[in-house]
Design brief:
The complex is a heterodimer of chains A (501) and B (482). Chain A is mainly alpha-helical and 501 residues long. Chain A contains 24 helices and 2 strands. In chain A, strand 1 and strand 2 form a beta hairpin. In chain A, helix 14 runs antiparallel to helix 15 and helix 16 packs across helix 24. Chain B is globular and about 70 Å long. The chains are: A mainly alpha (501), B mainly alpha (482).
Chain lengths: 501, 482
């Protein structure tokens, strides 16, 4: 029995939350929302526990895919249900199941309408996103990738703010457009190789012009998802309108789907095109880091500010990917995980304020530290993490990427390091206006400090941010072998022999 | 004598349907209105009996009957079974609707069965004339069905429009057929093919004939630029009849296209491919963009049908076995989606109220989460979002078109699919994000609820495990084309 579990551990981590979500839906009863809540919490805890053996049973010296399992799914197209995870996927899977648990707890009292549907959406979405991280078959991956849009579409649309319909439709259509182009690339690769196995694509040699087209098709999907300047505009809208849980999942995990997929598909399948186009992508990343940080500076809405800060941080991730060295790549991965904790925490902090005052505008606040000292302590800590203060997880990733960039080109590093100034400026300025100074109005004066539930989730997140900042080694050990293997893969040209351009 | 017996046995399902249709007409004269439910039962029994004989006499090989004018091959049998099943579902969905509108009479079921007979003959036609007779039988029954609600001015107008334009299309088709006949000297599909293979025909006359045939087909399918009847007829007809027009006849039309273009005129493939390419692209553009502007749900689904036909043509235009297989897969998926979509409209309609405006769906999630969920599946399936059946349907035709070398047309179709997703999302928005305006409880007979549940969930289940349906399509097409 236990043996069966260990052989199908990825399937369990995908399908348990989905089944739990269906069970929660079946329990839906507007008069008894607590039943749905407890059921969802139970499902979330079980799903998280099930994912832990992915860490404890991980082979740290193996850079390839582990925990593989599979069977033939659609033989007519040679499509397989093939799962596996490497040092890149496992941290993201753990992050997903962890974040889902946090979201369920954070929604406990906040969501009063259609509780069962809300909880079910997040549980199902969690399973689907883990599916994205662990699929080794292109169509299986694509199905998970698209299917996760459906619950997110509903979450923003049903429980979102006043302008939610615009935001959620924009989110859906932007992502769909990119993904469909990726689907065309998959079909092309299938017609050329006769397989949908990702690892077969790694070995498939293509001339540069084909590689560039394939790369651009992938780029359309992933650049929208991560998101990169200038296709980022859906993100601030979606974040502002989404309920707190939706923002948390979007920032902590959905953006990482894009980053992960760059490393899983676009770069290893078309390495020469990636090298060829890296200059452009680095330029876009630097624009995101510098320009978007300036945009964040002038935001009046806290959620929007954090959304722009996310885009700026994701610019660091793509920069780290496309400078093609060990430090940059590993730093980018650490940055992804760290951003998962910090952005989740920041959105939860905004959620805490919003639940009490029902405003996300910075100007509605002032002097919150006087009435909510404990909360202010947490918020300032996460803000420091967001600016990349040493000792927090935000520092590790950014520092590694900047070091990597110096190895590649001094000016990349020079421009990228502006983020340390701008990031500090927009984050700390927001903290100053919201938390410090005199108590601004009677609403702030009437604020009550964190309750036990809020304290619990923020404390857990703070621990993670601190732990990863002081001792990132468990994470880097995990990714190390995979990063080394990936870099070898990227450095080998896949141009057909004798066709060099 | 022996021959006749053999012929009749081959066409036994057709015999059953035609006798039952007549029996229903007769029985209707003697039944009291209260006992009319018997007619409904008779119609379902007719379909069941026909299905039994079609299924039990199925052999993988091809049988000809009536001196080669009628064929019984895998495609005929599989499509017929699907037609029975689809029609049976239509009868279940429409019963309450037509009862409430005083259309629950023998005529409805007799005409519906005659249209089924027409479809069966289209599916089994091996001669140009048989095909044509089948098509006319189907069309005439449908014209009459549209006008069945006599006092409804809109329906009468729709019937008139449908009839005039449909007759024009039939004329064009017949004219094209006559030219092919003139060039080849035969009406038989296989003989036409052999005659064309042997060469030395006047190409320009053949092409002229082909243009008329393709135009006629496009009319019946509702492909741009012959689509103008579709929205008006969909909107004007009673919803139960719209359900019939929009769903199963597409299966027969698919067989019709395969028999005419693929089996009779493969030598002209280069020519009809070009025509289909243009129609496919135009259908996707006009269908998807015009659908955005609609406020009437039935009209919106009409334009959505046009765009689906465009995708279907993507499969056909590749002119490969692979393409035909996934064109069939697309048609079958389309029929399943359409049945469920119109099923929901029928479900929400009640005495004196047609749920045919988009706004009638507002807040459905609060009125009935289960039915909103079913409609959600239908809409995502129509938009082609996995894990629903519609995804594999689009995936199949697009890979066939890509394999045939139409890279940029595929990219274009994909962009149009994103535009299409917008109006399907709007339906979901109305159901989930808006507050209900209509608070009537949803009343529907238990059998309709169950069948509708199965129908919509099938889109999800087959979407997760599409292998069986693909195998059926592969089997059908490969054994019929060899």
């Amino acid at each position: 029995m236990l043996n069966y579990f260990y052989h199908h551990i990825l399937s369990f981590t995908i399908w348990l939350p989905v089944l739990a979500g269906i069970a929660v839906l079946a329990s839906a009863d507007e008069n008894k929302p607590n039943l749905s809540r407890w059921l969802a919490l139970f499902g979330g805890i079980i799903s998280f526990l099930v994912s832990i053996p992915l860490y404890t049973h991980f082979n740290f010296t193996d850079g390839g895919f582990q925990f593989q399992e599979g069977f033939s799914w659609i033989p007519a197209f040679n499509i397989n249900y093939h799962l596996g995870a490497d040092g890149l996927a496992v941290p993201l899977i753990l992050l997903t199941s962890f974040t889902t648990l946090i979201v369920i707890i954070s929604a406990w009292e906040v969501i009063q309408q259609r509780v069962a549907q809300y909880m079910a959406c997040f549980l199902i979405m969690s399973g689907l996103m883990i599916g994205v991280f662990s699929a080794l078959d292109a169509i299986l991956y694509y199905v998970f990738w698209e299917a996760m849009l459906i619950p997110m579409f509903l979450v923003i649309g049903i429980w979102g703010g006043p302008n939610r319909v615009y935001a959620t439709v924009k989110f859906f259509l932007y992502t769909l457009l990119g993904s469909l182009l990726m689907l065309v690339a998959f079909i092309y690769l299938y017609l050329s190789t006769g397989s949908f196995e990702i690892t077969d694509y790694y070995k498939f040699a293509m001339p540069l012009n084909v590689q560039v087209l394939i790369f651009l098709a992938f780029f359309a999907a992933f650049a929208v998802k991560i998101p990169m300047w200038p296709v980022h505009t859906w993100l601030p809208d979606a974040h502002v309108e989404a309920p707190t849980g939706g923002s948390v999942v979007l920032a902590a995990i959905a953006l990482k789907l894009g980053g992960y997929s760059f490393l899983r598909f676009a770069m290893p399948i078309a390495p020469d095109a990636a090298q060829h186009l890296s200059g452009y992508i680095i330029a876009l990343s630097l624009i995101a880091i510098v320009y978007i940080a300036l945009v964040a500076l002038v935001q009046k809405d806290m959620k929007k500010l954090i959304a722009y800060s996310s885009i700026s941080h994701m610019g660091f991730v793509t920069l780290g990917f496309f400078i093609f060295n060990n430090l940059g790549l590993e730093g980018a991965i650490v940055q992804m995980i760290s951003h998962g904790f910090i952005s989740a925490a920041m959105f939860l902090c905004v959620g805490v304020l919003y639940d009490r005052v029902h405003s996300r505008q910075i100007e509605s606040y002032g002097g919150v530290a006087n009435t909510m000292p404990v909360f202010a302590a947490f918020a300032v800590f996460f803000a420091m993490g967001n600016t990349g203060l040493p000792g927090t997880s935000g520092f590790v990733g950014e520092f590694m990427v900047i070091l990597g960039a110096i190895q590649s080109n001094f000016w990349y590093a020079f421009l990228a390091s502006f983020t340390l100034i701008f990031g500090a400026a927009y984050t700390l300025w927001m903290v100053k206006r919201v938390f410090y100074g005199e108590v601004a109005n009677e609403k702030v004066a009437a604020l009550k400090d964190l309750n036990k539930r809020e304290f619990l989730i923020l404390a857990i997140l703070a621990t993670m941010v601190l732990a990863l900042g002081v001792y990132p080694q468990p994470l880097t050990d995990m990714t190390n072998a995979t990063v080394v293997q990936l870099l070898t893969q990227l450095s080998q040209s896949k141009l057909p022999v004798g066709l060099g351009l | 004598m022996e021959n006749i017996r053999y012929d009749l046995i081959t066409a036994l399902p057709e015999m059953i349907i035609v006798s039952m249709a007549m029996l229903i007409l007769l029985a209707d004269l003697f039944l009291k209105p209260a006992n009319r439910i018997a007619i409904y039962v008779l119609a379902q029994v007719a379909l069941l009996a026909a299905a039994y004989f079609t299924f039990s006499t199925h052999v993988p090989s091809v049988t000809y009957a009536f001196t080669g004018a009628f064929v019984d091959d895998a495609m005929a049998d599989v499509l017929k079974l699907m037609i029975y099943l689809g029609t049976s579902v239509i009868f279940v969905y429409s019963r309450q609707y037509i009862q409430q509108r005083d259309m629950f009479r023998g005529e409805f079921y007799a005409l519906a069965l005659f249209s089924v007979l027409g479809m069966m003959i289209m599916v089994s036609g091996q001669s140009l004339l048989t095909l044509y007779v089948g098509l006319e039988l189907l069309s005439l029954s449908l014209y009459a069905l549209v006008a069945l609600d006599r006092d409804n001015a809109k329906a009468t107008e729709a019937a008139m429009k449908y009839f005039v334009l449909g007759a024009l299309a039939s004329g064009m088709l017949l004219y094209g057929m006559s030219m092919i006949y003139g060039m080849t000297g035969s009406l038989n599909i296989a003989e036409i093919n052999t005659a064309l293979m042997s060469g030395a025909k006047i190409h320009s006359v053949l092409i002229l004939g082909l243009v008329f045939i393709v135009s006629g087909l496009a009319f019946k399918l509702g492909a741009v630029p012959f689509q103008m009847w579709v929205p008006d007829v969909y909107e004007g007809s009673p919803t139960a009849v719209t359900l019939l027009i929009s769903s199963v006849p597409k299966l027969a039309a698919f067989a019709f296209v395969i028999r005419l273009l693929v089996l009779a005129l493969p030598t002209l493939a280069v020519d009809w491919q070009q025509m289909l390419v243009i129609m496919a692209v135009l259908s996707i553009v006009i269908g998807n963009i015009t659908a955005i502007a609609q406020t009437n749900l039935k009209r919106m689904l009409a334009y959505s049908t046009i765009s689906h036909i465009g995708f279907l043509l993507y499969g056909l235009m590749s002119a490969t076995t692979n393409g035909f297989i996934f064109a069939m897969f697309y048609v079958v998926s389309y029929v399943m989606m359409t049945l469920a979509g119109f099923g929901i409209i029928l479900l929400l309609s009640r005495q004196g109220f047609e749920a045919d405006q988009l706004d009638d769906l507002k807040g459905l999630n609060q009125r009935s989460p289960w039915h909103a969920f079913l409609m959600l599946i239908v809409m995502f399936s129509m938009a082609g979002v996995p894990p629903t059946l519609g995804f594999y349907a689009k995936f199949g035709v697009l890979q066939a078109a890509l394999a045939a070398g139409y890279l940029w047309l595929v990219v274009f179709a994909v962009l149009m699919a994103v535009i299409g997703a917008f109006y399907y999302l709007r339906v979901i928005k109305l159901m989930y994000f808006d507050e209900p305006v209509d608070h009537h409880p949803i009343e529907a007979p238990w059998d309709m609820r169950i069948v509708l549940g199965f129908n919509a969930l099938a889109l999800l289940v087959v979407g997760i495990m599409p292998e069986r349906l693909m195998e059926i399509c592969i089997y059908t097409i490969t054994s019929s084309l060899s």
